[in-house]
Amino acid sequence: MRVGPDIDPALWRGLTARRVSRRDLFKAAGVTAGAMGLSAILDACGVAGSQASKSPSATGVGSQSWWDQQKKTTQLDFANWPLYIDPSILKTFTKQTGINVTYQTVINDNDPFLAKIIPALQNGQGTGYDLCVNTNGGPMDRLIALGFVIPLDHRKIPNFFKYADPNVKSPTYDPGNKYTVTWQSGFTAIGYNSKEVKNPPKTFNELLNSPYKGKVGMFGNNQDLPCPALVAAGYDVQTSTPDQWKKAAEPVMRARDNGTIRAFYDQSYIDSLENGDILVTQAWSGDIFIAAAPKSIGGDGYPEMRLNLPTEGSIYWHDNMWIPLHAQNPVSSMMMMNFVYDPPIAARNADFIWYVSPVPSAKDIVLNDLKDPSVANSPLVFPTAADIAKTQGYRVWKDQAEEEEWNSIWEPVYSS
User: Fold this and answer.
1) How do the residues of the chain divide into helix, strand and coil, expressed in percent and rounded to 5?
2) 105: buried, middle or exposed (CB in 10 Å: 19+, 13-18, 0-12)?
3) Between 343-353 and 330-340, two packed helices, what is the crossing angle to 10 degrees?
4) How far apart are the first and last CA of the chain?
5) Per-residue confidence (pLDDT) for residue 393, from 0 to 100
6) Domain residue extents for the chain
7) Class at the top of the CATH hierarchy for domain 9-15+187-316+405-415
8) pLDDT at 19
């Protein structure tokens, strides 16, 4: 699946970055380049990653008998990202269930949000939320390892098992969906300025060997740089070894040392792409959509911005619904999870937020009932099984020691 240079910008709505521009979210959160990762933040807060709390399953929390004792309430406190739900869905949920939703857009980035709630969980206190949405590839792994996620009652989410895309069932970071179900999904890809770049890179390695020396941007984090590099080298991200990590890092270091790569970026890469400092770059796909969209609809007004998905396969990430330990209204959380997997509701969400929908059958509803063919016919909102088969996910580390070894190889690549 590749997005060519002449793609209708309307189809880009399915290219799914993180709700709104990551640049704007980080500015709103007060997070700047060089911000600490979650591990460093937690260490500063006195929460050692190696000192996991007692597993919820071991204490009975999340067991079938525990769920049998939980009663339905009339409240749900829901923490999510900005612009990440059709607001009318909340009203429909309340009308159908009698549950009032306090919906808070308090998540502007995974790590700062988790750094706020994990110390409370570590001290046996609630977070103030019954349902949260966070990304795989570190955040969810750590929460699960620390024992802060309540195991789900699968009896309460029949819509998930009936309608969910097979690709979001039993993900590598949560086998059997014991703790999570996907909210929406997205891609890491390649962005470029179509006015200046007439033969845009179609692979990660072409990006590293771009003729636009000194005008290439790469990501400077421990998932969005290493994982595409491993895919480009022909390795499986999940089963790759430290020796393969080193081999995949070598061409990136060569491109860095010979001046091809201008810089390793955080969310600021989109500014550099727009102002011409870089012409081709790794990109979070939704940022490119926002950059290209007219200012009249909230975009940046740079129609020359385009995006390709690497032909060797892109990185496919998932945002996940999960229930924090000590949640006061867990049954309400399960009811919301089930509700948003109802195809008509999933269709409304897909048509509003332009993300890869976890409910394939929502496509026909978007097309026939909502009358929005630009979304329904986009393979980037409703990708085919063949499209998804070429993707890989973020690395799931076996333990903290493996994560530290991974970081010892990759951090010198993008931090130097």
Assistant:
1) 45, 15, 45
2) middle
3) 80
4) 33
5) 93
6) 9-15+187-316+405-415, 28-185+318-383
7) alpha beta
8) 38
**What span, in angstroms and rounded, lies between the C-alpha atoms of 129 and 323?**
8
CA gap 325, 141 in Å, rounded:
15
Strand segments, DSSP code E, in 109-214 are: 131-135, 181-193
The two structure tokens encoding residue 43: 């260490």
**pLDDT, averaged in runs of 10, over the chain (416 residues):** 34 38 39 45 50 50 95 97 91 98 92 92 96 90 92 98 96 95 92 95 96 96 95 96 98 98 91 96 78 74 90 92 98 98 96 87 96 83 83 91 95 91
Q: How distant, in Å, are the alpha carbons of 101, 283, 364, 378 from that of 389?
A: 36, 21, 22, 17
Contact criterion met (CB below 8 Å) for 321 and 55: no
Which burial class, exposed, middle or buried, applies to 214 when counting CB atoms under 10 A from its CB (0-12, 13-18, 19+)? middle
Q: Count of alpha carbons within 13 Å of 270, Cβ hemisphere only? A: 26
pLDDT at 4: 35
What's the number of CA atoms in the CB half-sphere (13 Å) around residue 160?
24
User: What are the structure tokens assigned to 363, written together?
Assistant: 């496509």
DSSP string over 209-222: T-SSTT-EEEE-ST
- CATH C-level class of 28-185+318-383: alpha beta
β-partners of residue 219 are 265
**Topology match between the domains 9-15+187-316+405-415 and 28-185+318-383:** yes
Q: What does the angle CA 159 – CA 167 – CA 368 come to, to the nearest 5 degrees? A: 60
177 Cβ partners below 8 Å, 6+ apart?
A: 152, 154, 160, 169, 170, 171
DSSP 349-411: HHHHH--B-S-TTHHHHHHHTS--HHHHT-TTTS--HHHHHT-B-----SSHHHHHHHHHHHH
- Of 70, 85, 100, 91, the C-alpha closest to 323 is 70
In the numeric block, which tokens belong to residue 389? 């088969």
Distance (Å) of CA 248 to CA 229, 285, 308: 6, 23, 21
Position 317: which residue type?
W
Instruction: Please give the angle made by the CA atoms of 30, 33 and 34, to the nearest 5 degrees.
Output: 110
